[in-house]
Batch of 2 targets.
Target 1
Amino acid sequence: KQKDEYIHVIGHDLKNPLGPFLNLLPILYKKIEDPKQKEMVQVLLNNANSMREMLYKILDQALQDHLEVDLEMENIPLRDSIDEIIQRNNYLFEERNIIVENNVGNDIVARGNIVHFGEIFENLFSNAVKYTRDAGGKVVVNAVKSSNDMIQISVRDTGIGMSEEQRNHVFDEFYKPNYEHQVVKSHGIGLSIVKKLVRKQGGRIWVESPGIGQGSTFYFTLQINPKK
């Protein structure tokens, strides 16, 4: 329980205040004409980005440690929880002019760890932004009941897609794909840790893509709330 709270502080209470800075400073930079003022805003933005990277390194290690203990499981109302994560990461989407659609039904409730759930989605969103070559892309989230006791969640993007080799190894711990068209630097934990977070909650994760230039869809499963 204490580790849950510790990771929540890092993943939510510390990252959230950075959002407005990371969202508004680039807008302010574009509007300012005075070179001295632009330089000062750039310093602020550089420091905000450095702080974000430092927080993700701490969170990465905390999540690795957290995988060794029993999880605090709870009911997760998917649509509301995903809406909150989208809002929290809105600066990433606005910067790239990416539209996000949450098509998850209001009545779908999953059983999982809310901290891990948030980190899974933040990483998948970060990857979608990272590999969207042109501004104006789209990310679509869906969820369907895949069996009697599991929910299948999908995150589809219109990014650069993946080759078969990349799909086969993208979740490997030390795999570094040669993405020729990476657009922006990643801001999140690695996909290998995401796989561990999903499996720790009794689910699985995989990715599908028609090929390079045709987008990707990440799927993962979670248990259904037994009361539903």
Note: The radius of gyration is 18 Å.
Target 2
Amino acid sequence: MGQGQTSRVPAAARRLRAYDNVSHARLLHNLKKRRLGHFVPWVKAFLTNRSTRIRMPEGMSDTILTPTGIPQGSPISSILYLIYNADLIESCGAGITSSGWVDDVCFMAKGDSEHETIKKLKTACRKADQWAEKHASVFDPKKFALIHFVNTKEVDRKYLSLRLREHT
């Protein structure tokens, strides 16, 4: 890239079944970690003894206990997921701006070259993979997007791909 020019690269990803996979123990831990421990008894009661039934053409299923997850229809669920998700947003590494809303996350890297920005995003993706492993989450490879904002006359094509888990 020319002198004084920068490479900017946002990467966006979405998690599959985000609400369904929330670990109650991890969520309660995150509440305490963020000095919201006074909400733990209420949240624990809110999440305890939850069950679901599935309506099918043949009729209703038996009641199924749901020991993980948070209900999608509750107004508090988005807030709880943001607390659950906070470590992912906070831990993506130096030189990365990150944001998220429930099942979506976006990382933005800025650098003097494609190589520098991709290196930063690789670190962020590695940390996101570690977060996903620890939080029983899966990123949807079909919803992963990477966009390079660079001068196309000076792009080094070997830095144009990025891997999230085993997907390019």
Note: The helical segments are 24-33, 40-47, 77-90, 114-134.
